[in-house]
Backbone:
């Protein structure tokens, strides 16, 4: 086993050049590609071996084509595939390329070693090169038509956590004798689970162990004349003699169905989902009961999206890291007024938090751009976002139509599509795909439609919250705040779009803040519906929470300038959102014993019905990631998050837990009565 850095931070490639100038790895004692030329090898062994240079090429006529690779290395195989795709008039509309890599190279090395004819493509890739951090890193290239998913980490550990259906497999680890773990039978089996039947595979190595491993994993293997002085190369086809039972492959959206969705809810979740689908060419109707977008939990002028470190790189840490990256990808370009990316200062909220943050010092290993310990606390990757303007920007597309004042009361499926009915029982909209992004109301809407036995099968709890906005000049001690702060409360400077909105409202009401362009947002309370705070109580609370930051109070005349905001968060019991398709409970409830023994991915789902709700107090951090994940799941394209993260978000997790709990209780009751009979 080769050494890696502790935690999510990966050791980058220790690239050197051999005496002939070929890139090599001292760690593995091997070169990155044939000495006869990396591009020649890529074309002859990988593209050629998988039929991508045939006429017509293997991908001709496909809507999308997916390549899976072990060992991204210097990306020559990828760049050559991308170039071949560009050159082919019969290319698929989209090329997906998923590559596993444990020691990513530095972008400068990538550019340095790229063959001249691929330089332009390499430059586009290098501009988006991710930090060397474990996890999945989606990169959109060529106007989004080429989607690279870099899976950074040990292939053995990551391959079982991928979800995709590949058409071709490039096997390109360092030589099996020097790096046997890249060719281990278990890894080859894990890769085979990600392939469509009939998928092509290729490799430069013809080592017997690899041939045998591939045959055992369901491939038929042939040896072809080699390239660049090698006698032979390997070509294979995935033709298993057995039928897949437990693992179903993601399927593309059916060509017979229009790519049309109705989304209920125009908060951050609904707007992000609409944007993600519209970007993939869907038409989307968004319905919201409220008079305007961002009205429910999203009704704050702004909020903080931020990475949440953890000592053990837990689910939340991984989700928020992926969330920040997804947010950057989803933000419309050149709209700086919507978002202000700047590290936020995290300081402990209480003694427990202080202990936790001390633990991070020894155990959180991330690049400084993501998390860095400083004297006052932790600086973490973050962005301040203007909620309403962001929702409006996400919904601003010719593919999206928005209808406010439109409440959904019931859903009904007629075998082909869903119809959404209003409270007056009139049909509002119809589509083959529905996404429920209506936060707290989601479980009730499902229960009213007979799709859940009751709202507690997808429980969401209300967490009321209040925050206040104040022109910065009224609080001189905070006016020069260098970055957003989060501790027992938070204070952040409003992005331009949010400040402009407050200023416009002040102008309309002719108040003394009508010329203020610099506003602070101070928050936030956590209240139960049963014990709501008055705006004054909420301000007292939020103001007090800034004690760690300053003992100087705001100027006495601030009260008249204060703006109060209230919203209600929707939180699940485990504080993770619900994102994914809904389980079909009818067959599950008919045989709970059998259902309880199933895994999440084995549960039947309601066709065309998904949720994106329960974002709790992390809607800004997670909305874009959840939308991306949902869109990939609907389209059957590679999932941008690992399957353990997807499972943690799966709305079916509650139903499965309930079914298992019910079965356990029945067994216990039966056992108790038997024991009583003895
Ligand atoms: C005080 C406060 C501060 C916060 N600060 C932050 C922060 O700093 N960072 C962060 O990440 N998160 C923060 N949050 C949380 C974040 O705002 C939420 O997670 C996010 O807004 C949830 O978005 P959503 O789209 O899921 O729900 P919502 O914004 O509640 O949207 C749901 C929408 O569905 C509509 N709807 C409901 N029922 C129906 C129906 N039957 N038919 C049609 N439409 C319907 C509603 O009108 C609403 O517009 C904060 C929340 C509060 C309250
Ligand atoms: C031969 S190079 C790949 C060349 C690459 N396909 C190209 O076109 O440039 C092998 C790569 O496998 C990576 N690798 C080695 N062991 C690995 C492992 N266990 N998991 C993931 N990647 C690994 C190495 O870091 C190296 O980048």
Residues:
């Amino acid at each position: 086993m080769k050494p890696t850095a502790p935690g999510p931070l990966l050791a980058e490639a220790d690239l050197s050049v051999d005496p002939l100038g070929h890139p090599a790895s001292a760690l593995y004692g091997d070169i990155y590609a044939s000495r006869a030329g990396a591009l020649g090898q890529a074309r002859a062994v990988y593209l050629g071996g998988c039929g991508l240079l045939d006429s017509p090429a293997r991908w001709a006529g496909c809507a999308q084509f997916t390549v899976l690779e072990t060992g991204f290395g210097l990306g020559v195989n990828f760049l050559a595939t991308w170039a071949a795709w560009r050159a082919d008039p019969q290319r698929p509309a989209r090329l997906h390329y998923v590559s596993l890599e444990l020691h990513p190279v530095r972008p400068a090395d990538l550019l340095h070693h790229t063959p001249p004819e691929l330089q332009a493509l390499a430059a586009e890739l290098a501009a988006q090169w991710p930090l060397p951090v474990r996890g999945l890193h989606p990169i959109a290239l060529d106007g989004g038509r080429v989607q690279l998913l870099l899976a950074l980490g040990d292939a053995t550990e990551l391959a079982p956590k991928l979800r995709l259906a590949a058409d071709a497999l490039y096997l390109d680890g360092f030589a099996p004798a020097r790096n046997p773990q890249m060719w281990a039978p278990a890894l080859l089996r894990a890769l085979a689970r990600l392939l469509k039947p009939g998928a092509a595979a290729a490799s430069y190595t013809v080592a017997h162990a690899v041939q045998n491993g591939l045959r055992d994993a369901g491939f038929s293997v042939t040896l072809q004349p080699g390239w660049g002085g090698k006698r032979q190369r390997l070509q294979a086809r995935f033709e298993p003699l057995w039928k897949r039972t437990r693992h179903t492959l993601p399927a593309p959206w059916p060509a017979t169905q229009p790519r049309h969705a109705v989304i209920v809810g125009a908060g951050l979740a609904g707007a992000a989902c609409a944007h993600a689908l519209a970007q993939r060419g869907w038409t989307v109707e968004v319905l919201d009961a409220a008079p305007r977008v961002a009205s429910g939990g999203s009704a704050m002028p702004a909020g903080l999206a931020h990475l949440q470190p953890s000592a053990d790189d837990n689910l939340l840490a991984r989700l928020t890291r992926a969330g920040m990256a997804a947010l950057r990808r989803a933000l419309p370009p050149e709209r700086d007024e919507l978002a202000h990316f700047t590290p936020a200062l995290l300081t402990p909220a209480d003694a427990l938090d202080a202990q936790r943050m001390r633990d991070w010092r020894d155990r959180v290993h991330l690049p400084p751009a993501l998390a860095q310990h400083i004297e006052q606390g932790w600086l973490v990757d973050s962005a301040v976002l203007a909620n309403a303007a962001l929702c409006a920007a996400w919904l601003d597309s010719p593919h999206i139509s928005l209808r406010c004042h439109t409440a959904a009361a019931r859903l009904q499926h007629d075998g082909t599509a869903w119809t959404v009915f209003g409270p007056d029982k009139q049909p509002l909209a119809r589509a083959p795909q529905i996404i429920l992004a209506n936060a707290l109301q989601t479980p009730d809407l499902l229960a009213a439609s007979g799709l859940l036995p009751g709202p507690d099968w997808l429980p969401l709890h209300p967490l009321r919250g209040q925050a206040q906005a104040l022109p910065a000049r009224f609080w001189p001690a905070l006016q020069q705040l260098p970055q957003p702060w989060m501790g027992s409360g938070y204070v952040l400077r409003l992005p331009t779009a949010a400040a402009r909105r407050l200023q416009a409202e002040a102008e309309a009401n002719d108040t003394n803040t009508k010329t203020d362009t610099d506003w602070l947002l101070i928050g936030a309370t956590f209240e139960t519906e049963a014990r709501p705070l008055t705006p004054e109580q909420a301000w007292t609370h939020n103001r007090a929470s800034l004690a760690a930051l300053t003992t100087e109070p705001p100027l006495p005349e601030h009260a008249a300038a204060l703006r109060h905001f209230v919203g209600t968060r929707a939180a699940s019991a485990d504080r993770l959102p619900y994102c994914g398709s809904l389980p079909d409970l009818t067959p599950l409830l008919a045989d709970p014993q059998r259902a309880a023994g199933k895994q999440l991915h084995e549960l039947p789902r309601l066709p065309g019905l998904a949720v994106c709700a329960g974002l709790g107090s992390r809607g800004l951090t997670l909305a874009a990631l959840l939308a991306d994940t949902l869109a990939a799941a609907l389209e059957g394209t590679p999932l941008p998050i690992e399957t353990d993260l997807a499972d943690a978000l799966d709305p079916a997790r509650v139903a499965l837990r309930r079914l298992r709990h019910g079965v356990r209780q029945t067994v216990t009751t039966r056992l108790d009565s038997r024991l009583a009979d003895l």
In short: The chain has a mean pLDDT of 95. Residues 15-238 form a domain with the Rossmann fold fold (CATH 3.40.50.150). Residues 6 and 365 are 7 Å apart (CA to CA).
